[in-house]
Design brief:
Layout lengths: L3 E6 L6 H14 L6 E6 L5 H8 L5 E5 L16 H6 L4 E4 L2 H5 L5 H14 L2 E6 L3 H5 L3 H9 L7 H5 L2 E4 L13 H17 L8 E4 L4 H8 L6 E4 L6 H8 L5
Parallel strand pairs: 1-2, 1-8, 2-3, 3-4, 4-5, 5-6, 6-7, 7-8
The structure holds 2-phosphoglycolic acid.
2-phosphoglycolic acid (PGA) binds next to strand 8.
Length: about 250
């Protein structure tokens, strides 16, 4: 059976009060399964709340939505890898399209964050994906390869620890998802590019962008898709349970 990852990106939603209520609903309905992991990326202020609910639960993990590349210092508003680890995080989203396109994060900064995460013991989920005009110009693979090139100077062991999330920007929060075959062909291109950079083990590649309870099953059963990264539909415990159980019945 294929190993699947279901990652919930809550973005700027669910403070500690809402996070506690969400976790109560989620844990009441969750059926753990071998070969399935569920990762939560709450806002930083809710890490302690979610951590408290996840402790001792196999297959569930906690992450942060962003980190700074420095380990400490005068960086008001930022969180380091060490601080995230201390708060219980084991994973981190890096280069989410909102970081790139709303906050102007560059490929170079994204690369520094990946290296900081790996150096400090967090699993980075490197998000890549093209904008609509790039897709229409036929540049999808070139854009994704440029975003992946930041991994170029990693050694093989480090490279093997990076998880990729392919999230076409035009599909995020728009209700338009890539078809499983569209996603699958980009996932294949991502894997072959990484193999060309020396990645020995098959890379885990998640799909993200308007994943909902009604399309999750067809996405996660596609052979090229190793899981999903979900924003909007991960905010409701009932919807998130449907997605995290997709394909089990
Ligand atoms: P969405 O967001 O599921 O709301 O489209 C996905 C993401 O941004 O990770």
């Amino acid at each position: 059976m294929k190993h699947l990852i279901f990652a919930a990106n809550w973005k700027m939603h669910h403070g500690p009060t809402a996070a506690a209520a969400f976790m109560e609903g989620f844990l009441a309905g969750y059926r753990p399964a071998q070969e399935r992991e569920v990762w939560f990326f709450p806002p930083a202020v809710s890490l302690a709340t979610v951590r408290g609910r996840l402790e001792g639960q196999p297959g569930l993990a906690l992450g942060v939505q962003n980190v700074h590349w420095e380990m400490k210092g005068a960086f008001t508003g930022e969180i380091s890898v060490a601080l995230a680890r201390d708060a219980g995080a084991t994973h981190v989203l890096v280069g989410h399209s909102e970081r790139r396109h709303v906050f102007g994060e560059t490929d170079e900064e994204t690369g520094r964050k990946v290296r900081a995460a790996l150096g400090g013991g967090l699993t980075p989920v490197l998000c890549v994906g093209e904008k609509l005009e790039e897709r229409e110009a036929g540049d999808t693979v070139a854009v994704v390869e440029r975003q992946l090139a930041v991994l170029g100077d990693l050694d093989a062991d480090s490279m093997a620890r990076v998880v990729i999330a392919y999230e076409p920007v035009w599909a995020i929060g728009t209700g338009k998802n890539a078809t499983p075959d569209d996603a699958g062909s980009v996932h294949e291109a991502i894997r072959s590019f990484l193999a060309g950079m020396g990645r020995a083990r098959r890379a885990a590649v998640l799909y993200g962008g308007s994943v909902k309870p009604d399309n999750a099953r067809e996405l996660v059963t596609h052979p090229e898709v190793d899981g999903v990264l979900v924003g909007g539909a991960s905010l409701d415990a009932g919807h998130w349970l449907e997605i995290a159980h997709a394909g089990t019945d």
